[in-house]
Amino acid sequence: MIPAPFDYVRATSAGHALELLTEHGDEAKLLAGGHSLLPMMKLRLAVPSVLIDIGSLDELAGIAVDGDDLVIGATTRHADVAASDLVRAEAPLLAWSAAQVGDPQIRHRGTIGGSLAHSDPAADLPMALTALGGSMELAGPNGPRTVAADDFSAGYFETAMEEDELLTAVRIPRRPGEPWGYQKFTRRANDWAIVGVATVAGRVALANMGARPLRATAVEEALAGGASVSDAAALAAEGTEPGEDIHADREYRQHLARVLTRRALEGRTG
Amino acid sequence: MKVQLTVNGEARADDVEPRLLLVHYLREVLGLRAANVGCDTTSCGACTVLLGGRSVKSCTVLAVQADGAQVTTAEGLATGGELHPVQAAFRQEHGLQCGFCTPGMVMAATGLLSENPHPTEAEVREGLEGNFCRCTGYHNIVRAVLAAAGQLDGEGALEQEVAQ
Prior knowledge:
CATH topology of the largest domain in chain B: Ubiquitin-like (UB roll)
Strand content of chain A: 15-25%
Shape of chain A: globular
Oligomer: heterodimer
Helix content of chain A: 25-40%
Distance between the termini of chain B: 57 Å
CATH class of the largest domain in chain B: Alpha Beta
Order of helices and strands of chain A: EHEHEEEHHHHHHEEHEEEEEEEHHH
Radius of gyration of chain B: 16 Å
Number of helices of chain B: 6
Number of domains of chain A: 3
Radius of gyration of chain A: 18 Å
CATH superfamily of the largest domain in chain B: Beta-grasp domain
Strand order of the largest sheet of chain A: 4-5-10-6-7
Structural class of chain B: alpha+beta
Shape of chain B: globular
Number of helices of chain A: 12
Strand content of chain B: 5-15%
CATH class of the largest domain in chain A: Alpha Beta
Number of strands of chain A: 14
CATH architecture of the largest domain in chain A: 2-Layer Sandwich
Order of helices and strands of chain B: EEHEEEHHHHH
Number of strands of chain B: 5
Strand order of the largest sheet of chain B: 2-1-5-3-4
């Protein structure tokens, strides 16, 4: 399968990438690792006429501490997030989540920013960022702005980003030593989650239980009110209307959400 | 569009269409046919090569994205007529059946061992989760990777099995 023809431009800086985005408008797509975009282009589900390659911009990659936050450049590869001692110490849920994406080859290419901007509600990192209470740093022609992870996804493959904006970094509160849990239910190695649950610091996020990563607010409120883990987890599917597909109907997804939430709240990973 | 890269130690410069996939560049422009196109959807790993020393699926990388990089294919592993230790182990342990997945398996295993020179059996199985063998010949493939890492005893039995 071959993508439709396109013009390829290698951005020389984040500022240059923004200029190119403004110049080409919605005909253009940003390319970093390309592990969401290129498969869609090969299937002709995406047919951009210009690709702006930001994959080799050093200024957009890297992991650093900034006060109470961990800041991860948008083009940092999943493998580097997963292997980072800093991430493992300060946000172990994120390191674990990055290690669950696809397979080793995919993690060598795919980027944290690419996964978030792709906004697949079944994916690992959007759920992880929601559980972590992170935020996205955007650059655009009108200057930088920050969007909370809770407000970033706007539904299936849609985000709060404007077409001329660039995701530059992800910001995550440092929580060393804080208990966390992560559950990803799949049929086969390297699949997306049929349902996923991530939890840390009283926050509970669900993957593939709707058009965007969801907070399990009923569970969070019950926990805050002193409910037991199993009583709180029983509320995990409240208010959800998950989609149905060949893998699972709505009732089954809701059942999984309750079971996986209990396991995640018990601090289990799987 | 001009790309300049190093493939199996040799400098290459070619004019390519931006949409040309790395696997097609390797196979059709350079004539290196080890990397196979299997699923063509980033799933099966038959097209695995090393890009900058890390395993990648070359069906999901544009040739222009490899500009300036070092690429290694299975053709580039052997040196001076000697098989690479991973290749030799695949032959020794019969880590193949039909052979279609083998170049990708060998490259994924080579990448895995460069990151983790002494993996456990579980780490080998997880490390190869991006590579499918449709003959389901996984057992000998895993043995081959462990053998390459020096993890087999003289009888050829897995250390983990011996310990049980």
